Amino acid sequence: MRVGVLGAGGRVGREVCRAVADAPDLELVAAVDPGMAGIDLRQVAGIDAPGLQVASTIDELVRAEAEVAVDFTVAPAALANLRWCAQHGVHAVVGTTGIPDEAVEELRGRFEQSSANCVLAANFAIGAALMTRFCELAAPFMDGVEIIELHHDGKRDAPSGTALQTAARVAAAREAAGLGWPPDPTEDLVLPGARGGRAPGGIRVHAVRLPGLVAHQEVVFGAVGQSLTIRHDAYDRSSFMPGVLLAVRQVASRPGLTLGLGPLLGF
Amino acid sequence: MRVGVLGAGGRVGREVCRAVADAPDLELVAAVDPGMAGIDLRQVAGIDAPGLQVASTIDELVRAEAEVAVDFTVAPAALANLRWCAQHGVHAVVGTTGIPDEAVEELRGRFEQSSANCVLAANFAIGAALMTRFCELAAPFMDGVEIIELHHDGKRDAPSGTALQTAARVAAAREAAGLGWPPDPTEDLVLPGARGGRAPGGIRVHAVRLPGLVAHQEVVFGAVGQSLTIRHDAYDRSSFMPGVLLAVRQVASRPGLTLGLGPLLGF
Amino acid sequence: MRVGVLGAGGRVGREVCRAVADAPDLELVAAVDPGMAGIDLRQVAGIDAPGLQVASTIDELVRAEAEVAVDFTVAPAALANLRWCAQHGVHAVVGTTGIPDEAVEELRGRFEQSSANCVLAANFAIGAALMTRFCELAAPFMDGVEIIELHHDGKRDAPSGTALQTAARVAAAREAAGLGWPPDPTEDLVLPGARGGRAPGGIRVHAVRLPGLVAHQEVVFGAVGQSLTIRHDAYDRSSFMPGVLLAVRQVASRPGLTLGLGPLLGF
Amino acid sequence: MRVGVLGAGGRVGREVCRAVADAPDLELVAAVDPGMAGIDLRQVAGIDAPGLQVASTIDELVRAEAEVAVDFTVAPAALANLRWCAQHGVHAVVGTTGIPDEAVEELRGRFEQSSANCVLAANFAIGAALMTRFCELAAPFMDGVEIIELHHDGKRDAPSGTALQTAARVAAAREAAGLGWPPDPTEDLVLPGARGGRAPGGIRVHAVRLPGLVAHQEVVFGAVGQSLTIRHDAYDRSSFMPGVLLAVRQVASRPGLTLGLGPLLGF
């Protein structure tokens, strides 16, 4: 399968280039990054794809006959890239975050009418997808739940997209089970904000930011006499790669737009 | 629903008596314990079931017209009790541990031919059942896994029954996914035993025993650049009660022998 | 040493009565509780102190010739009790929370002029005192720190007194080391409160409330490429007893008012 | 201060080169690595030290007038390097592991008679040094303790050197407090090794090896009704750098051989 990478010069993009180049069943045929055109990725990132240079425009995908494009760019660029992919019949695997809901719906329509498919996920770490799924499954059986996410101090948004998504899915599962909002006993709040932020659906979310940390999330469920904790730790951007490769290999057989890794994992 | 408790004088038994007496849809009609016959449970354990005394033999269940018996005794007593239940058409909910596999199979046969059913679980904490299930679901997607269980220093067996069961189910899930044994890199073992015990199926299990702890288990999965941790903490025997009551309410509609809480939780 | 317990009918008070009665070097000579006068503690709480009844007023301490009073009541009652102790020359060990700072200063003056001494601590769990001390020691060497406390859903104040005290001592240690406020990178706060409450001194504190939990605190420090986590779990009110007995045994040799368990542990 | 790095071509060595080059008060003047002589570190590792090349022999330190040598090599090479440093009056900061105790004693003698000093530590992460110290301080006050260390599946020795050192220091602290061996209640060991390895001094140590993990250690103390957990997570080799730079800056003022980071941190 012939793969092109959009945002190839970025930190995740380089990692994707490396992972694709290393996979025996995939071929890295195009690397696109406007700001780094002409760069020899082999030299700067040790990628073993002879002769590959970074091109500056997405049209490179046509020239290189790419079947799948992997996009790790920024939201506005990704939106333009994905419209292009739908139009040109190139499958897309997208890890770029911050694409607004209404743009996602527009893309759904475009890929439903295209010969190409799209897999879009906020977090390509398979362990994070399992965590979210397990939280959904546990929600109906446990009396209460709160989410703690912990990230490095370079992360400026809080809470993380993964935490918000977990909260949404847990809230939906609680509602489907007729559980309503988890009770909040706190009356005497000495420090404003100490009880965290309340996500839509009522789940409390706490965001920790510390130097040294990478990307971690802990979901704590409570019930009579017990607690159940589900935690994911990502130590490295490499944690995304197995999920990205899984999506690259499956995207051709998943018509339309697939949201999240869940369906690719069988749930 | 009329409920009798076997092992009513024990620590878990008393807690079961209390939970049944407190449940509006259940009635505590018999309390059996050979060593404590004639005791007023109301006085020693604050149980609100007027006139109830602890009887010494299981035949009390007949006199009291119990529909369900809950057994928290010891393995040999439980085996005799369960044969009696199958014979007398009284449903059984059993949390007694240490019943050998071949005795479980014998009981399966007896309950299949009885009008009564049986639910048998090593751990009635709903959170523990969720943990085990999630481990089974995660196993095919993660590269390695080890189990750490931590208990109070009064527990003499190691590892715990729950840890062994988790290991067995994770191993089965890995095998079904064609994963084989998790790799073990350790060559230079300075302290014998440091890498834990190897359960059937190859999973490493580590057992911690410390004063102050109650009953805890942590299952750690690893994959490229990440880990996924599923942890259950039981702080109190009360953690079993929701699971016991769930089983009491469902046992009449689950023909034959049901193993574990899983099927009652819908998986 | 002859010991009286104030608030003897409360949940912690009963536990203290039991611990004192069980200690070979201590004698439980008085149990005071206005609401429960005349109650036989032996019967309701299994306390082995023959003939001991619950009296309704603190004057019982005189009659019983108590040398030390242990107070687990509520703030206003404790304040009156402690004034009485200072006046009557009875040493005091106090675990009642919520006594205002200015009242503590008043008591310091009274005990400095009394033949009796006082040990006052918000948390008598020795492990919690160690946690707080270690946080203070770690603070100068780590770049950032946040506090997560987790309690059962019956706790109405947030954050906990222990969390606030930890935050204050960590902030003082950072300031003494010239570290200033920990940096906070968050700009885009999707949910108000998600980044927790900011304690005086700048430390972020997050409070989780869930059914089933007991009393837990986790302090996470971050520095280049690493984190250091110090966690205390109290599973039971019994966790206070070793600290209470330690204070009872040492109070006579600690002139004036001693704040916290630290000095009794040698730091 | 002029610094040379021995083992400059290795993974930690490169990181040290980078950290030294980036520190405004330090100058990277020599990089030694037999296997990589002539390599331009600037190109392969982005190190900004103009004109610096990797030399093949330690004599380069003389030519470059290095005041401090940092050694991250392998035990036999390090031993030769350190003898050379003691002889030539170059201070040494050593993170190479596996140097036998008797060789350490030999080096102690050599540096005591040299104008140069040596700081040798098995783990340069400041958080790990704090963890070990806190364990030592907690040991006398807690009833029991076990150590769990978790590392990536490329680590072949078990348990880790840090775990063994922690066990030794905790055992010494317990013995000094007259506590004797922690009790072990386990009688019925279903899986050999499940209770971990017993370090000299009696502490149980459990070693987990999983793909994806980096370097983690958790020390769990138990006492009546509570537990205290001290955990260090190293996510990256960068976690060593602050400790290495601290040692480089202090080594000139620490006569003889200093073992561990503790003394540099003030304990």
Automatic annotation (TrEMBL), chains A, B, C, D:
Its main location: cytoplasm. It is an enzyme of class 1 (oxidoreductase). Residues 1-124 form the Dihydrodipicolinate reductase N-terminal domain. InterPro entries: DapB_C, DapB_N, DapB_N_CS, DHDPR_bac, NAD(P)-bd_dom_sf. GO terms for molecular function: 4-hydroxy-tetrahydrodipicolinate reductase. Pathway: Amino-acid biosynthesis; L-lysine biosynthesis via DAP pathway; (S)-tetrahydrodipicolinate from L-aspartate: step 4/4. The keyword Transferase does not apply. It catalyses: (S)-2,3,4,5-tetrahydrodipicolinate + NAD(+) + H2O = (2S,4S)-4-hydroxy-2,3,4,5-tetrahydrodipicolinate + NADH + H(+); (S)-2,3,4,5-tetrahydrodipicolinate + NADP(+) + H2O = (2S,4S)-4-hydroxy-2,3,4,5-tetrahydrodipicolinate + NADPH + H(+). Its EC number is 1.17.1.8. The active site is at H151 (proton donor/acceptor), K155 (proton donor). It comes from the Bacteria. It is found in: Cytoplasm. Pfam families: DapB_C, DapB_N. Belongs to the DapB family. Catalyzes the conversion of 4-hydroxy-tetrahydrodipicolinate (HTPA) to tetrahydrodipicolinate. This is 4-hydroxy-tetrahydrodipicolinate reductase. It comes from Aciditerrimonas ferrireducens.
